[in-house]
Amino acid sequence: xxxxxxxxxxxxxxxxxxxxxxxxxxxxxxxxxxxxxxxxxxxxxxxxxxxxxxxxxxxxxxxxxxxxxxxxxxxxxxxxxxxxxxxxxxxxxxxxxxxxxxxxxxxxxxxxxxxxxxxxxxxxxxxxxxxxxxxxxxxxxxxxxxxxxxxxxxxxxxxxxxxxxxxxxxxxxxxxxxxxxxxxxxxxxxxxxxxxxxxxxxxxxxxxxxxxxxxxxxxxxxxxxxxxxxxxxxxxxxxxxxxxxxxxxxxxxxxxxxxxxxxxxxxxxxxxxxxxxxxxxxxxxxxxxxxxxxxxxxxxxxxxxxxxxxxxxxxxxxxxxxxxxxxxxxxxxxxxxxxxxxxxxxxxxxxxxxxxxxxxxxxxxxxxxxxxxxxxxxxxxxxxxxxxxxxxxxxxxxxxxxxxxxxxxxxxxxxxxxxxxxxxxxxxxxxxxxxxxxxxxxxxxxxxxxxxxxxxxxxxxxxxxxxxxxxxxxxxxxxxxxxxxxxxxxxxxxxxxxxxxxxxxxxxxxxxxxxxxxxxxxxxxxxxxxxxxxxxxxxxxxxxxxxxxxxx
Amino acid sequence: xxxxxxxxxxxxxxxxxxxxxxxxxxxxxxxxxxxxxxxxxxxxxxxxxxxxxxxxxxxxxxxxxxxxxxxxxxxxxxxxxxxxxxxxxxxxxxxxxxxxxxxxxxxxxxxxxxxxxxxxxxxxxxxxxxxxxxxxxxxxxxxxxxxxxxxxxxxxxxxxxxxxxxxxxxxxxxxxxxxxxxxxxxxxxxxxxxxxxxxxxxxxxxxxxxxxxxxxxxxxxxxxxxxxxxxxxxxxxxxxxxxxxxxxxxxxxxxxxxxxxxxxxxxxxxxxxxxxxxxxxxxxxxxxxxxxxxxxxxxxxxxxxxxxxxxxxxxxxxxxxxxxxxxxxxxxxxxxxxxxxxxxxxxxxxxxxxxxxxxxxxxxxxxxxxxxxxxxxxxxxxxxxxxxxxxxxxxxxxxxxxxxxxxxxxxxxxxxxxxxxxxxxxxxxxxxxxxxxxxxxxxxxxxxxxxxxxxxxxxxxxxxxxxxxxxxxxxxxxxxxxxxxxxxxxxxxxxxxxxxxxxxxxxxxxxxxxxxxxxxxxxxxxxxxxxxxxxxxxxxxxxxxxxxxxxxxxxxxxxxxxxxxxxxxxxxxxxxxxxxxxxxxxxxxxxxxxxxxxxxxxxxxxxxxxxxxxxxxxxxxxxxxxxxxxxxxxxxxxxxxxxxxxxxxxxxxxxxxxxxxxxxxxxxxxxxxxxxxxxxxxxxxxxxxxxxxxxxxxxxxxxxxxxxxxxxxxxx
Lengths: 552, 716
Description:
The structure holds 2 protein chains of 2 kinds. Chain A is 39% helix and 20% strand. By secondary structure, chain A is of the alpha/beta class. In chain A, α8 crosses α10 (329-344). Chain B is built from 23 helices and 19 strands. At the A-B interface, α3, α5, β8, α6 and β13 of A face α1, α2, α3, β3 and α4 of B.
């Protein structure tokens, strides 16, 4: 997920780092190659540590660099070019005083512009733990935020899913930190997720570095897992790493994490899953399984050992060597390559077969998705996806946790193999489909319900009856259908006056009939209007039926 | 140690509890409508029957003289009628959008209390609502309703648990005891004085306390943790209202009250919508620019707007954020007092539904004016399976597809699309990654595997009653496991599966749970066909990478060696039924000579003995009926069933005798494979033949010839 490095560039970041902050006057500033180490040097070092981690393990992450003092500036917009961020870090200047509010507002603005409000982001705020003159106003606005009244200058909680980590480049004994720590704490509380990082005991280059290591280990570890398709499996990395699910549902609070083992349950047609809503989407990157390589190499050695013993016994050791080189030359080459090339770094990963590529190809060609289980009661789908540049990829969309999350697929736990059913719902040639599952109750827009609360509803319903009445006897089926629909509604709404009115109306229609009309029309109108008047005599749920006359 | 203080855990316990109260137990789960069944007074809403004839008559007047008759009297709706109409509309919207999670009960009160339904899901639809009210009948006249009785019944109804509440309460998890019972009571009545309002609130509060005491002392009822009381005051169309709408959010710790005025007539529906939107956290979207043919003039089309309701969460993706960016989307339609978001209709592509669109959410919708022509046009279009994209104009002037309307199984949904930049942009192509440059994946075979592992809905199995607690999904897992027991993913790693159609029956049939007699024969035929190919020294259609080392003739032999090993492994891993074992038995019998040779670890091929054996076999004859294993001399080839002339056989059949290549050039590979196989064999049940062996020699097919004879005689 996108990461913002929010760096304090106020003047206080130019303080030299003292070996022992307790007795400042007596202690010597730390030096490196004759230069005094400043706090800002350590913050840049930390940022570089994070960036190095990204360029090694999370090449697809986006990072932005925003600096703030009393103003903020987006130095590097979100990019995957980590070197450009590093370059920018090396040329930073010093500005005036710290204003965290301004910094956070800048972050919020930039993230909303770039990613909108649906993308989870990480914010690393690096400061010297000194709030300076801002202290008072910050605690005030925090207090008003916490009690939920009054607008606040602080954009907390963020209008997007975010994790705010605050890193203090300060000695744990720093006096200023003692004041600011509770304020930071409150910010984190309101912000939701995230932690406060302070160097351990003493304040040295090493302790700051290990603090950043801790930050990386807790927040920026890539997801490495295994995808299983029955007995086939492959190591994968998901980018961006899947987040923990923590939301309130009706009657329960759901907390789920994606497991390291993702199991494919079976397959579905793309058209059948019908663009299901996803909690998150991830690129599935196939990885070389280092563990497997090692175990295979070990196996190979064992085999070698076995043959060695065997043939030593037979006394044809030299023959064996030729044998190995002859018939096993290929295997040897591969194995040797696999086991040795790691050191050389020339391994051609693209030539090692991977289940992911097979899965991608199969799903793409077959126009299918693979339903998979990613956690307890948590499911997703693998599918082939091509971006605008036609670069095709294997993707994983993770649903919301639960069995009942895609209504048109039904309960996911009820999805079983076709072969266990007596009738194949897909038909012989895969032309039919059991999906989407039909809903038992038709919705109002699909069942021609009666709504008279809105203007014109009653009018148009009665007009429809009249229209059919004038086409009697031909339209008698529609006539009675509409008549009964209105009659039932009138009874439901406790509106019998309408029935009498309607009876009068039909009587008049009967009276107005031109002489050329079939006598049947008059008979039906007469019958209908009489039946309408008897609304309270008969069972009201009983429909008015077409009158069988001798003129038919 | 680096100090880090997890704030989520330090979070004030009270505020966390408050969170749970607010989020996890929605008030809207239970609603009780308490209806005053004595609102018989006329509402002033007139329906003029005479007006229906006017347009028609004006046409008639041209041809016919107008007929003079007594004018029809207009009919007037009673307040009760307006109330039931409003209630039906309220329920229609709720049930369309929340088919099972939001329940509504109805209680009517006149002299007595009429409890019209329960919390059961069967009662939560328009047709049962209709039957309830038909049975109830029109409003009673002449007396005032006993509201107190009604309120008691309403509160009692709230203390009864719904099915889901009961399930959660009786579940064995930690949270079971913490199920909070919240609900809402909506009273439809007519109020005259402030005192009356005060009395109702006080009385209701009293009843709530009393009933909570009763409920707390029983196991079957749940005390009410919070109740929202909504007093809806109906007044006549021509009247001005006596009260302002009022809120008492904290009437007591467990009761909030609201007074809401509804004027009968044209303003009733939009005002009512306001109430529904608030109670169920819904929002309104207006789809604008829907092209529709004119009713009168089919050749021209005009653009229409249709308003939809859906959960408000469908808008968060576009509204949360910078407010000024979306201000232009928000409008208030004429006559309403709630906001609607206007999105533009996009003429849909026909294939949209067969592609995967990236959606972050999907919510059910309902149209606001459900029977209007534009609304029903849109919903019918969607019900017929077409998908409609909705476009959001950006402030900057460009547009973006923000939502999609689609019907799934009879329900129409609004899908929220991703509108912002994606973190997945510009990904590396899969061909650049691990395995990306391997070109011989068994993709067509994988598609077959996919087709055999398609999922379909099974009849629901509840977790309790399911046999040994298994659910259909578990059998999907095990099916896929069975199908992939031996599944090389590239052609280079398999000899067996690169043979294509020859081994097709093995691929399809061996993975089945059981085999029929015919299927066993089919599988055996594959083995014979392969032997035939080897006998005829056919080169295997194996890709070059598949063969390991060797050159010329040796290469082919190596291939066959690998093939037999692979086949045996494949068959051994698929011993699902006695039928499967028979197939393996067949293979083992075919190979038995080679096996026994191996056991004595003889490095040389006893060529003479082999030739003698072949001779003895050939003597028995080339016709299928008489052929005795172990070596089938008549072999079904994929292209022809004709037997191979015996003269040819002598030349070619030598390798067939020793499929495991008992030649001087015994490879390390085959020895290793045989070692592995024998290890594996130990793990498998011992082969029947070996168990019966005397001095390591078993008479194979002891009764084969008798059977053959029987069979042939039967055939004849």
